[in-house]
Specification:
Bound molecules: thymidine-5'-diphosphate, magnesium ion
Helix content: 25-40%
Structural class: alpha/beta
Strand content: 25-35%
Number of helices: 12
Distance between the termini: 85 Å
Oligomer: single chain
Length: 460
């Protein structure tokens, strides 16, 4: 069969393929995300298909679940406590890990720090973005070049795979998926077809050889670059860099993990010598000031398995325009609007004529409802210019009728707050708490009016 080029359209958000352009992707519902690409059918695609089946591999047949031998997966420590924990106790052999994030956030730095931190780990670091000299300079900046790391400047996937099979490293890093290309696909590097082909080839390599691979992928703020989003279902683990490029803190979140729990969080600080692990994230997220400032409340959060405390800052001022402004950094603005509506309707606070700004400390994005109580308290504190003492913290979800609802693992959060020296914590009166630590007063509140009574009376 002769090879034939065919134009297809891909959604750059979810990767859905379509024979024609559409304004809205039928799978994910996003508008204006279809991009044109060429796909080759027939002969030219044959090598890629053949690669799916390793040469000489026996034909497989279905196996009864009962007869499958189970052995715990082999894990390798990466010599980086935060990253090991994020992966569920080290990287699993033969896994493909996607490390995504905006350009300049620290993906290459983190990946290069791994082999430098483990001098015995035989690593193949494939760079398609930087020259060998640049990598060497970076290595020297972040702690020398004493490692068993081989830098390979190459962008052709077939060459990379051949080299990996020859060298059999214990870890492989590919920086980045957007710069790699395969000769089997007739489109430019960075296109959806190339990215998918590259990821699929590397996945086969990982599964056949057992080499764990860290694949770096860029995403832009607008998500305009085709990339990581469409790879999420192909890879085993998705780690995502978050945080403000201009600030020094960086967060790595696990979004998907076939070998461990998700919603784990690793915290780093970008220093002049690379990324420093922050084992106790509360150190950066809670107030540095002693006397209470108005508009500040501390929330006892839980991210994955680890409790930590974060400062919520709010500013409430008279609206400058007829339509008040609501803006939130690190928090869902719709949820903020909902909480303000609850305060207005259920507790009679007239916030409809106020501008409300909300900010989570440290550039963290909070999605957990357990933060609601602290948000409400910070807003009230700013509205009445009434400081909340800095040794008080909050945990609880606020419901639509103004009730304070309990959240998961409240007792662990209380324990963490006590450990960090907090003297008082507000929780839902519906929480069941056992074995409370000494030294912290647990105040149970059932609704917003009860919270206000307790907060304002105690501070009078
Ligand atoms: P980089 O790892 O190149 O980002 P990515 O691979 O995600 O695009 O990170 C580059 C940024 O980090 C750059 O702005 C400089 C900064 N940086 C430091 O602050 N200290 C360091 O030791 C290094 C290596 C980088
Ligand atoms: Mg980079």
């Amino acid at each position: 069969m002769a090879s034939k080029e065919k134009t297809v359209w891909f959604c750059k958000n979810c990767g859905t393929e379509s024979p024609k352009w559409m304004g809205r992707c039928p799978a994910c519902g996003e508008w204006n995300t279809m991009v044109e690409s060429t796909s080759v059918t027939g002969k030219a695609q044959a090598p890629s298909r053949a690669a799916a089946q390793a040469p000489g591999a026996p034909r497989r047949s279905p196996e009864n679940l009962r007869n499958i031998n189970f052995a715990a997966e082999n894990r390798r420590s990466l010599g980086n406590g935060e990253l090991d924990r994020l992966l569920g106790g080290g990287i699993v052999e033969g896994s493909l890990v996607l490390l995504g994030g905006e350009p300049g956030i620290g993906k290459s730095t983190l990946s290069l720090q791994i082999p430098l931190g483990c001098p015995n780990l035989k690593t193949l670091y494939v760079t398609g973005e930087e020259s060998l000299r640049q990598v060497k300079m970076r290595a020297q900046r972040i702690g020398g070049d004493d490692s068993n790391c081989y830098i390979y400047s190459e962008t052709l996937v077939e060459n990379i795979i051949a080299e990996a099979r020859r060298m059999m490293p214990e870890l492989m890093v590919v920086d980045s998926v957007q710069t790699m290309f395969s000769e089997n696909v007739d489109s430019s590097p960075g296109s959806v077809t190339q990215i998918k082909e590259t990821a699929a080839s590397l996945l086969r390599l990982a599964k056949e050889t057992g080499i764990p691979i860290i694949l770096i992928g860029h995403i832009t703020k607008e998500g305009t670059l085709a990339g990581p989003k469409i790879l999420e279902h192909i890879v085993d683990v998705v780690l995502q860099f978050e945080g403000d490029n201009s600030g020094s803190y960086r967060l790595v979140r696990s979004i998907k993990n076939r070998f461990g729990s998700t919603s784990e969080l690793a915290v780093y600080e970008m220093t002049g010598k690379g990324l420093r692990e922050v084992a106790n994230p509360s150190e950066m997220l809670i107030p540095m000031h002693d006397q209470g400032l108005s508009g500040v409340a501390v929330a006892a959060m839980l991210d994955g398995a680890r409790p930590f405390l974060i400062e919520v800052q709010s500013l409430v001022s008279s609206a400058a325009y007829p339509t008040p402004q609501r803006s939130a950094t690190g928090f869902d603005v719709r949820r903020l609007n909902m909480l303000l509506a609850v305060l207005e309707k259920r507790a009679g606070f007239r916030l409809g004529v106020k501008d409300v700004f909300l900010n989570m400390a440290g550039g963290l994005r909070v999605t957990e409802p357990g933060c609601d109580l602290a948000v409400v308290s910070a807003v009230l504190s700013s509205n009445f210019d009434f400081p909340i003492p800095s040794d008080v913290c909050f945990v609880g979800e606020v419901g639509l009728s103004g009730e304070i609802r309990p959240v998961a693992q409240t007792d662990r959060r209380v324990t963490e707050a006590a450990r960090l020296g907090f003297r008082k914590i507000y929780v839902s009166s519906y929480s069941s708490l056992e074995n409370m630590p000494k030294g912290i007063e647990v105040v149970k509140v059932s609704d917003i009016p009860a919270l206000c009574r307790s907060l304002f009376r105690n501070n009078d």
